[in-house]
Amino acid sequence: MARIVMKFGGTSMAGIERIRSVAARVKREVSAGNQVAVVVSAMAGETDRLVGFCREASSLYDAREYDVVVATGEQVTSGLLALALQSLGVPARSWLGWQLPIRTNDAHASARIEDIDTAALDAALSSGEVAVIPGFQGVSDNDRISTLGRGGSDTSAVAIAAAMKADRCDIYTDVDGVYTTDPRIVPRARKLKRVTYEEMLELASVGAKVLQTRSVGLAMKTGVRIQVLSSFDDPNNSATADTLPGTMIVGDDEIGDDMERQLITGIAHDKNEAKITLTSVPDKPGAVARIFSPLAAVNINVDMIIQNIAHSTGSTDVTFTVPQAELSRALDVLEKARADVGYETLVHDTKVAKVSVVGVGMRSHAGVASTMFTALADRGINIQAISTSEIKVSVLIEEDYTELAVRVLHTAYGLDAEEAA
Amino acid sequence: MARIVMKFGGTSMAGIERIRSVAARVKREVSAGNQVAVVVSAMAGETDRLVGFCREASSLYDAREYDVVVATGEQVTSGLLALALQSLGVPARSWLGWQLPIRTNDAHASARIEDIDTAALDAALSSGEVAVIPGFQGVSDNDRISTLGRGGSDTSAVAIAAAMKADRCDIYTDVDGVYTTDPRIVPRARKLKRVTYEEMLELASVGAKVLQTRSVGLAMKTGVRIQVLSSFDDPNNSATADTLPGTMIVGDDEIGDDMERQLITGIAHDKNEAKITLTSVPDKPGAVARIFSPLAAVNINVDMIIQNIAHSTGSTDVTFTVPQAELSRALDVLEKARADVGYETLVHDTKVAKVSVVGVGMRSHAGVASTMFTALADRGINIQAISTSEIKVSVLIEEDYTELAVRVLHTAYGLDAEEAA
């Protein structure tokens, strides 16, 4: 017997037929003798609808009332899943955020979970009842409904798994696991059996959107074992999730001895970056701070930064990337800072992409970056910027070369499977 | 300064534009110096949508989970109205059933309010904040969300008005008051300035669906003054509700001295009745009990009952009415009771209507019923059954004559206004 959390996203909850299919899947785990808590998202599209209402109702935006409205999406699906489970003969009840309670701080609309009281949950699970918990929501210190921000249901699931000391947190998604790269680009991408938290964090942060980054960070911190599985259920399949071929996300220690493991775990890409260059910035102390301080002040995340060596004129060019969604705000801020920074021209380019190779194996192996640079150079792909972390090397290239670069690197690091995925 | 409850139905909350218009109306009362609590329904159609989901999800129907799902409709509109009020500069917050709390019993899906804690509400209102409260919902003894049954928002409003000792409970509806009869049938129907609780109860129970019957009963018990007003707001109108021409629903004592008052307050009609006749029922003790006991056992309300005088054969015919919605269940029960009752044939007729004259003045005046019978006979309208209460006389007639009967009676009792309403 294991204690597991199962988390289902909005696509899995979109309509009664799908909710019934989720119920069947939960029943399999219960029938296998497991204690199960289920965390659910709102029906696909519902949160957008509710957010739209709030925006229309008020430009002032009181996040506490916003939370009252948007938390209803998950409340509906948790009640419906409890009903669907009952109709399959599985004892079940919904537990809303304020009922457990799931305590959060007062940062409404992007609250952080502070504490989960598991007394009621433990009692329910021990009695053989399935606990259905709306994701994304909690209750703040002043007893008002709070939400965790978009995509927060993954975080809810991991936090609940940690609090109830679950053996596993199974996240059911549109894909059936984490792949070495996007199979739509590289048909011979391989599904990974195991990936470390850190690798998953790097992959998520560079565009492999299987899990919300925050939930992976929480899992790493609390040691929750996450399994990524496909939500497309074969009704004739009687397998429980511990025998399904998903991807486990675990700590370094669990895969330390895996001799078969590749040096590189995966290749990720991200087309949502924009490149900004300031030319002829005075090459003197404080110049760079005057560029990035005003951006930080308005919460714009700057990613790859390159400062060229100074020209003979005593000035330099500074290039960096920001998310495309923040580009116009960033340009606005930089225009205003022109006199202060003293740059000559401000140019930007959205036709860029970031391609990254990720893997914990990198720590103990030299030469990973040079393999990357050589492979790209051999195909005539120009590198516009480079950034590295302990387990990742990213390059910025012209957007049109994205798929080519991903394929070239997938082959260069020996990740291609024998057959197409 | 007065303390008032304003209640808005689903039509008033159907979309952000309408919610904004409600907010403007609330603002007028606040600007006039009133302390205001607002009770809201779900957006028109939303509760039906949620009920549909529940029915699809489970035929077993756990009313506790049903309540979790359907209570979200009012949660959404209460958050949105709070936002809309804030954007007009009116301090406001939503108070969910579990937050006040509004305590109910455990009869989920048709719960009764047991207690409302007004400490938080008093503090909020005294600080000048508008309290927006979702109607229809509360929290049961075991801290689960409960709902009061369809149309429960009127009851919520009256219960909250009673608990907070409000000076008035203003119910905004699709009509602008209570009329002497349906103005679509009698254009010269007059709007009543005042009507007693008992009259309103009788009018509601015979088809004048302005207010939920239960809410009127509660208002009578607790002495809450209800005002029925139109929810169609003229944005250029700066009047507060105490000067608007709605209908006040009050106690007998408040209208006791009204010399201008008509003998009859109104004429109501109801086409949702069905007539059932059992022929040749043995005319002996206990026979009638054997008919009505099995109907009562399955909660079918029987209304008008006539037992004809016994035939020479020692048997009699028994006729009564049930709501049309219950007809097939009633026939089913009666078929099964055939041997026990010993009747000969079972016939039914849905082409009937009940027309009623209602008025507290009846108590002190004889001749009300005979005026009715004479007026109907003069136009050749046959009376199939009669029932009376202290302040009401109802007759069952052929459905096709309904509008004619209503017009004839409206004139016979001198209710016609000088001009069309």
UniProtKB/TrEMBL annotation, chains A, B:
Pathway connected to this protein: Amino-acid biosynthesis; L-threonine biosynthesis; L-threonine from L-aspartate: step 1/5; Amino-acid biosynthesis; L-lysine biosynthesis via DAP pathway; (S)-tetrahydrodipicolinate from L-aspartate: step 1/4; Amino-acid biosynthesis; L-methionine biosynthesis via de novo pathway; L-homoserine from L-aspartate: step 1/3
Residues annotated to bind ATP: 7-10, 173-174, 179, 184, 209-210
A biological process from GO: lysine biosynthetic process via diaminopimelate
UniProt domain ACT: residue ranges: 276-360
Molecular functions (GO terms): aspartate kinase activity; ATP binding
Keyword vocabulary terms for this entry: Amino-acid biosynthesis, ATP-binding, Kinase, Lysine biosynthesis, Nucleotide-binding, Transferase
GO CC annotation terms, alphabetical: cytosol
Keyword Acetylation part of the UniProt annotation: no
Ligand binding (substrate): 47, 74
Family: Belongs to the aspartokinase family.
Name of the featured protein: Aspartokinase
Species the sequence originates in: Sphingomonas paeninsulae
Lineage, top ranks: Bacteria, Pseudomonadati, Pseudomonadota, Alphaproteobacteria, Sphingomonadales
